[in-house]
Amino acid sequence: MDEFNLLPIYRKGIGEISNGIEIVVPAFCKKNCEHNEKCKRHYQQLEHAEKGLYQCPYGFSSYVFEIADDTHIFTCLRVEGAYNPKVLLPKLKSEGKLYRELSKSVLEQYAEAYREYWINQFKYEKYKQFVDDIFHDVRKFNQQIKIKNEHLYKKSQQHRKYSDFLELSKSIHVISWFLTLY
């Protein structure tokens, strides 16, 4: 499932941080997330942490929240009162203007929007699979109709008394051809 996140999000299992649409991952975090032991340890602890705000070893804020019993982590943030500007700002260097400070209420709105998107995406995938399964069954049934119709068509061509069946068979063939298009 492609994801749509406005804020940088930590990807469990692959140990990387994906850019957000509104806030991108700072160069420092991109470079250090996968290889730095302090960063690895921070995210490993967050994977099992309760919902809430946490501070990474380099001063950024990380926000842990759940969706359907699965932990999600927004990270590389400057959340009011939850980051250390003395440690963090030197890491941002010239990028500092890109990383505006967020209030906790705005962060929670982002998390709620992501939660809603994730749930709707999950529903969409479930319904899409259902529709795909129905179309698969319709195609399979249509194939059976074509086979039976072909048999009927061949039989009706052999005898003039079956001319009504021949016309019916032609109609069935046209209908099944339209079903094949879908």
Short description:
By secondary structure, the protein is α+β, with helices and mostly antiparallel strands. Helices cover 54% and strands 16% of the residues.
Name the descriptors:
182 residues; alpha+beta; 2 domains; six-stranded mixed sheet; 5 helices; 54% helix; rod-shaped
Topology readout:
Elements: E1 9-11, E2 16-18, H1 27-32, H2 37-46, E3 52-55, E4 61-67, E5 70-79, H3 85-92, E6 101-102, H4 104-158, H5 163-181
Our estimate of the beta-strand percent is 15-25%
Helix percent reads: 40-55%
Rg of Cα set: 29 Å
Low-confidence stretches: none
Which of globular, elongated, flat, extended, rod-shaped describes the shape? rod-shaped
**Secondary-structure element pattern, one letter each:** EEHHEEEHEHH
Q: How many structural domains?
A: 2
Average pLDDT: 84
Number of helices: 5
Can you summarize the main beta sheet? 6 strands, mixed
Q: Quickly give the structural class.
A: alpha+beta
Number of strands: 6
Intertermini distance: 25 Å
Model description:
The protein has 182 residues and is an alpha+beta fold. It is built from five helices and six strands. The protein has helices spanning 27-32, 37-46, 85-92, 104-158, 163-181, and strands at residues 9-11, 16-18, 52-55, 61-67, 70-79, 101-102. Strands 1, 2, 3, 4, 5 and 6 form a six-stranded mixed beta sheet that branches. The longest helix is centred in the C-terminal third of the chain and has 55 residues, at 104-158. The chain starts with 8 loop residues before the first strand and ends with a helix. The mean pLDDT is 84.
